[in-house]
Amino acid sequence: MAKGAAKGSTKGVSKVSKWYKPDDESSRFHRRQTQRQSAPKLRSNITPGSVLILLAGKFRGKRVVFLKQLKSGLLLVTGPHKVNGVPLKRVNQAYVIPTTTKVQLGNIDLNKYDDAYLLENMLDKTLKPAFSIQNSLKNKRRKNKTEKMQEKQTKIMQIKQFLIVLKKQSS
C-alpha cells in the first residue's frame, strides 16, 4: 500500500525493472501526420476588380487591379501593363493595401492563369539561353493566333475599364 492513499482504496506501487533496454535498440516513435496547408483566407475588402496598392518589390507604390486568388493563396494582379507598367504578377496579400476603388472586370476568362502557368513564364525568363539561337527557338513554346487574340482582347477590356475609373476619379 502506498502512503497517503484514500481510506479503503488499494493502490499498488509498481516495481522498478532490474533490466534496462539497451541503448542501441531502436524504438518506434509515433509521428504526427502533417496537416495540409490550405490557402489563406482572402481579406474581406479584397474582391475581384478592386484596386490595390503594392507595398514591396519593384512596383511598390503602384496601383494594381486584383483579378483572382490562386490556389497557393497568392493574389493575381495586373497594372494593366500599358497603363502603369505593372505586368500580370503574383503578390502575397500581406504586401498590399486594398482601396475602395473598384474596376468592373466584365467577362474576362481567368481560368488559364494559375500558379503553374505563371511559374512557367517566370522560369522561361530566368533560364539562360541555350548554346545556339536555333536551339532556343525550337524549344520555345509559341502561341497560336487564337491565344494571342484572346490575350489582346482581355488586355483591351482591362485597359478600357481602368481608364473609365481613372477618369471618374480625376473629375
On the 0-100 scale, what is the average pLDDT?
78
Structural domains: how many? 1
Would you identify the regions where 5 or more consecutive residues have pLDDT less than 50?
none
Write the H/E string, N to C: EEEHEEHHH
> What class do helices, strands and sheet pairing give?
alpha+beta
The top-level CATH class is Mainly Beta
How do the strands line up in the largest sheet?
4-3-2-1-5
Form type: elongated
Number of strands: 5
Using brief descriptors, characterize the structure shown:
SH3 type barrels; five-stranded antiparallel beta sheet; 171 residues; 15% strand; 29% helix; elongated; alpha+beta
Question: In short, what is this structure?
Answer:
The protein is of the alpha+beta class and 171 residues long. It contains four helices and five strands.
Describe it:
This protein is an alpha+beta fold and 171 residues long. It has helices at 81-84, 115-126, 133-139, 145-170, and strands spanning 50-54, 63-69, 75-78, 89-91, 96-102. Helices cover 29% and strands 15% of the residues. Strand 2 (63-69) and strand 3 (75-78) form a beta hairpin. It has one domain (50-170): SH3 type barrels (Roll).
